[in-house]
Specification:
By secondary structure, the chain is of the alpha/beta class. It contains 33 helices and 15 strands. It has 5 domains: about 130 residues, Rossmann fold, CATH 3.40.50.10140; about 180 residues, Tetratricopeptide repeat domain (Serine Threonine Protein Phosphatase 5, Tetratricopeptide repeat); about 80 residues, no CATH class; about 160 residues, Rossmann fold (3-Layer(aba) Sandwich); about 110 residues, Serine Threonine Protein Phosphatase 5, Tetratricopeptide repeat.
């Protein structure tokens, strides 16, 4: 390979370190270590701190740096110049990292800038590991080596281009150029470089593998799979190749194949934390949550600073209801490949403490659905601060102004906020507030339409349910191909006569819009969905919204409207697992794919639910229909029928007991026991109820109580028939 070109380039500092001259020797040791690891550190190595002048050089260095390290000691906390440097860093919104060289108190002159900021007590750490811990912390903050690495990559790119110009027939030169371009996120340029390499050497496994990776990032799944399979063909034992192929299978919800590929990769290197993490992600999708947790923990043991492992474990913990641990690990999202960026770091991050005289800035960081879901936490936060500024996307501003929070200022993301004291990302609020499944704010509506008037009032049905319909999300979303349906998947809904459908689907094709226009059971309301506030006014006039996992579902839930959410087999963490309700939205019902890609069964279940919803409330007729449906083996529909009876007669013992039998047959043993216990409380002397409950107890292995109840079989009216069986 050609030798890297050398040149002299000024490199802006990654880190500015502020310290007292009395601690200079100790600080220099830390600085030398960081510089050896490639971190560009600026420190004043002159006698300027002993002088009366504060130079322009220091001001410029603070401005250019990304992280401001404050070396705290009894000497530095008494230094006027250190106080000035800290104030300037805070004003410039630098990331501040306090490092205690010794135990000491923080003076009032520094309290404001350091309030709520996590620190490193260097004096408590083992000397051999203390500097390494500081380095890891800096790396987690996303800085260090950036300028040097960029310079080196630029030089390498120039070298490979020179090599290609001199000898265009060298496939390795094109491959290496593609690697440089991919590493610098220039995927459109990297692709032709890899293709040129493969034209020169079609057997180059690394070229096929790397090309498949950038195709996957662009959601070009079929092409990515083609090249990954060729990579395996030419190098069947390479772990990275199996890992790349597994990533494609995971992205296309071929979960069993993804798991197998990641296991093959892991066999080549058991100590590879990334392989452990990727296998864990596939196991989550497969519903093997205990195994997934094991592999995430293995990854963290191998590399405690691997962001994707912590982030993945956090989402698994949230999915299984361990919110306290989950929120902590979810904070690793800032260091993952998603490349979310913290903002407004010049002010301390709020930690949830009561600060009744302070102003808090909250900024939205992710999609519209996330913002709608988490904006509820402003209500709790407002109880602990004087006022809140919410910085949000423009399309949410009018809607979010309807949340009932005193002293709330809404500004759009392109605006400079007014003065504030603390800041926090919206999705970090649950951690700061200590949110658990038990105390999640569940009150709805927490958002409201800004106007009660709806432009489609005259087009709504007075005879049928008016049902909003959304079958696809943002096509730019990484998982959109699997969380979204095709129009043909949900078209059977319009063939039913149970409801009048209102399309809320943005950017539908002309063909779909024409089909809706011809349907006697549907209208298109998207022309009136100018923003979320306008859409809220429409949803508020509907009886129900049926939606895939998009912002529309969150909006309907936040408005307190009934919403049926249609989920892929591997849904997001927020929808939990093995349940048909949501802890986030009390009016939401979940419909899950029984296997990857099976929207047909989901729509069949929705059609049945619509039918049952529209049935007249006649308990005798409903019970008869439910028993016939149960006898015919249509257990899910029977469940819905019994539940409908109980919404109108909550003490109908026969239906409660029959619902318990259906739940047991569906494999929901815990719910079955709870339901049978409720029936037995209402009818403690009913042999049928006691016997039904005993079957559920026996299935769980509770033989002591189960056999006692089982003896009531002899009192059943059909015991002789039962005995003959």
């Amino acid at each position: 390979m050609a030798k890297l070109l050398q040149c002299s380039v000024y490199v802006s500092p990654d880190v500015f370190i502020s310290y007292s001259r009395e601690n200079q020797q100790e600080v220099i040791k830390l600085v030398e270590y960081l510089r050896e690891q490639g971190v560009a550190v600026w420190m004043d190595e002159s006698d300027i701190h002993g002088a009366t002048m504060w130079t322009k050089e220091i001001v410029e260095a603070i401005r250019a740096s990304s992280v401001f390290i404050l070396a705290i000691s009894r000497h530095s906390t008494g230094s006027k110049n250190v106080v000035k440097e800290l104030a300037l860093a805070s004003e410039r919104e630098k990331i501040i990292l306090p490092i205690y060289l010794e135990q000491c108190d923080i003076p009032e002159t520094m309290e404001y800038q350091l309030a709520g900021i996590q620190n490193i007590a260097l004096y408590t750490l083992d000397k051999g590991k203390a500097y390494e811990f500081v380095l890891q912390t800096i790396r987690r903050l996303g800085v260090g080596q950036a300028a040097e690495e960029g310079q080196a990559l630029g030089q390498a790119e120039a070298c490979f281009r020179q090599a290609i110009a001199a000898a265009t027939h060298l496939p390795e030169a094109h491959l290496n150029l593609g690697n440089i371009l991919q590493r610098t996120s220039r995927l459109p340029e990297a692709e032709p470089a890899y293709r040129r390499a493969l034209r020169l050497d079609p057997t180059m496994a690394t070229g096929h593998r790397n090309l498949s990776s950038i195709l996957l990032w662009q959601n070009r799944h079929a092409e990515a799979l083609q090249h990954a399979l060729k990579a395996v063909q030419h190098d069947p034992v390479d772990g990275e190749t199996h890992n790349a192929l597994g990533a494609i299978f995971k992205a296309t919800q071929q979960i069993d194949k993804a798991e197998a590929c990641f296991r093959l990769a892991l066999e080549t290197d058991r100590e590879n934390a990334a392989y452990q993490t990727n296998l864990a992600g596939a196991l989550v999708d497969a519903g093997k949550l205990n195994q997934a947790q094991y592999h995430y923990q293995q990854a963290i043991q191998l590399n405690a600073m691997l962001p994707d492992a912590h982030h993945g474990l956090g989402m698994l913990q949230l999915q299984t209801g361990n919110l306290e641990a989950g929120w902590k690990n979810y904070e690793w999202r800032w260091q993952t490949a998603q490349q979310n960026k913290r903002r407004h770091q010049g002010k301390p991050e709020w930690n949830g403490e009561s600060t009744p005289d302070k102003t808090l800035l909250v900024y939205c960081e992710q999609g519209l659905g996330d913002s709608i879901q988490f904006v509820r936490f402003l209500i709790q936060a407002a109880e602990r601060v004087d006022s809140i500024i919410l910085k949000c996307p423009p399309e949410t501003a009018d809607l979010f102004r309807t949340i009932r929070v005193e002293s709330l200022t809404i500004i759009t993301a392109d605006r400079t906020p007014p003065p504030f004291d603390f800041q926090i990302a919206l999705l970090s609020l649950p951690k700061a507030l200590g949110a658990t499944l038990e105390n999640i704010p569940k009150g709805v509506p927490y958002l409201r339409p800004s106007s009660q008037a709806s432009p489609i009032d005259t087009q709504l049905s007075s005879q049928k349910l008016n049902v909003g319909l959304v079958w696809a999300g943002n096509p730019q979303h990484r998982n959109d191909a699997f969380r979204s349906m095709q129009w043909t998947d949900c078209e059977p809904l319009l063939e039913t006569d149970f409801a009048h459908f209102v399309s809320l689907q943005l950017n539908a094709s002309d063909k779909v819009n024409a089909a809706i226009a011809k349907s006697p059971n549907a209208i298109d309301a998207t022309a009136h969905c100018r923003d979320l506030a306008a859409t809220a006014a429409i949803i508020n006039q509907l009886d129900l919204v049926i939606s895939v996992d998009t912002a529309m579902a969150h909006l309907a839930g936040a408005l307190g409207k009934p919403v049926w959410l249609l989920l892929p087999f591997a849904g997001e963490w927020r929808w939990m697992t093995n349940c048909d309700h949501s802890p986030w939205y009390p009016t939401m019902k979940l419909f899950r794919q029984p296997k990857p890609g099976d929207w047909k069964t989901v729509i069949q279940n929705v059609v049945e639910s619509l039918e049952i919803t529209t049935l007249p409330v006649d308990v005798f007729s409903l019970e008869k229909y439910a028993l016939e449906t149960k006898k015919n083996g249509r257990l899910q529909k029977a469940r819905l029928l019994f539940e409908k009876i109980l919404t109108h007669d909550s003490e109908h013992v026969e239906s409660i007991s029959n619902l318990g039998n259906v739940l047991l047959a569906l494999g929901k043993t815990g719910q079955a026991i709870e339901t049978h216990s409720a029936a037995q409380e209402l009818a403690p002397n009913s042999s049928q109820v006691i016997f039904n409950r005993s079957l559920a107890l026996l299935k769980t292995g509770d033989f002591q109580n189960g056999w006692v109840g089982y003896e009531h079989r002899t009192n059943l009216p059909h015991y002789e028939v039962f005995q003959s069986r």
